[in-house]
Design a protein that fits this description.
Layout lengths: L4 H13 L4 E10 L3 E10 L2 E10 L13 H13 L7 E4 L9 E5 L7 H6 L7 H16 L11 E2 L1 H15 L4 H12 L8 E3 L8 E4 L3 E5 L6 E3 L1 H8 L19 H10 L7 H27 L7 H6 L2 H14 L2
Parallel strand pairs: 6-10
Antiparallel strand pairs: 1-2, 2-3, 3-5, 4-5, 7-10, 8-9
Length: 331
């Protein structure tokens, strides 16, 4: 069912900012096939506030979705923020009365999320050397957050992740020697399980709001949150695909492993060997390569018509180049 988001926001204003409140402006920022984001401003008895609406545009399918429900996402953001992690304030979780479907509203956090600007814009020159340590600190706070037990988050370890992505890879029918070699390499070096923790699941440059003066302002996009190995989040932000043209800086294109790990331990995180982070980094490149491959196949078979799919699908070759370097270097 088509939803008139602007009209729904007008009706929601009173619940967000008090009786007589009104929406002054609203515009859609981004969104994919199943999710969209709106920025809007509300004027009420307390003045003007900038807010963000995150809503799902298609019905959530728990049997086939890797992402979590938006109500769960909102609950995790609240829990992490209460534990000291930089996360946006959740102001309202929408219900049937709001007419917006599955959605929630956050307070807008000023800053920048464009990865290429974070690694190259002169505005970030002064703060950039501190960002890797800050990322380690915020990860320690996220990982120390007890997830509300009623949320029933999935638990994933390295062996399960390898199984899942190899199954997806085999289903494509592709034969990519570098990907095949990476699966074999990682299976021979899978680390033993550790005490699982709450993971963001997509912690990387591009999903973090950075302020040019203070650094990490908010961790966004929690839809892939789950329970697992704390090194998984660290390995993902170190994956070369999220360095935006700065391969010499392994942490997000702006920092070094030592600063990430030092920040994590300083904020109370259990020490994590670099070898374990590197394992998850290799798995991160392999995982993204398989994801790119599936996007290409979805376009090739006619399942998806968007030109975005084959454009992202081309990037499987980038991940193969990354994997060659990583396999030569070793863990």
């Amino acid at each position: 069912m088509e939803v008139d988001v602007r009209s729904a926001l007008d009706r929601l204003a009173d619940r967000l900012a008090g009786k007589g409140a009104r929406v002054l402006q609203a515009g859609r920022l981004s969104g994919g096939a199943s999710m969209e984001t709106w920025a809007f401003e509300v004027e009420g008895p307390r003045g003007r506030d900038r807010m963000i609406l995150r809503r799902r545009t298609v019905a959530y399918d728990p049997d086939n979705a890797r992402s979590i429900p938006l109500s769960t996402e909102a609950a995790l953001i609240k829990a992490a923020r209460a534990n000291g992690a930089q996360a946006p304030p959740v102001l309202h979780v929408c219900d049937h009365e709001d007419g917006l479907g599955e959605a929630y509203v956050m307070g807008a956090v000023p800053g920048e999320t464009l990865g290429r600007k974070i690694v190259s814009d002169p505005a970030f020159d002064a703060i950039r050397p501190k960002l890797a340590r800050q990322c380690g600190e915020v990860l320690a706070k996220i990982h120390a957050t007890p997830p509300p037990p009623e949320l029933n988050l999935k638990t994933v370890d390295a062996a399960l992740e390898l199984d899942r992505y190899e199954e997806v890879y085999r289903a494509t029918g592709a034969q990519r020697p570098i990907l095949e070699l990476a699966f074999q390499y990682l299976r021979q070096r899978t680390p033993p399980p550790v005490q699982p923790v709450l993971l963001h699941g997509d912690f990387r440059n591009g999903n973090i709001m950075f302020d040019p003066e203070t650094g990490v302002a908010a961790v966004l996009d929690w839809e892939l949150a789950h329970i697992g190995d704390p090194a998984e989040d660290m390995g993902w932000i170190c994956t070369n695909s999220w360095r935006f043209g700065r391969p010499e800086k392994p942490v997000g294109g702006f920092g070094d492993y030592a600063d990430l790990l030092a920040g994590y331990e300083a904020a109370g995180g259990r020490p994590i060997p670099l070898e374990r982070v590197r394992f998850w980094q290799v798995l991160g490149s392999l995982r993204w390569g398989v994801m790119c491959l599936t996007m290409y196949v979805s376009w090739q078979t006619g399942l998806e018509k968007s030109v975005e799919r084959p454009m992202i699908g081309r990037r499987v070759s980038e991940t193969e180049a990354d994997l060659v370097v990583l396999l030569e270097q070793g863990l």
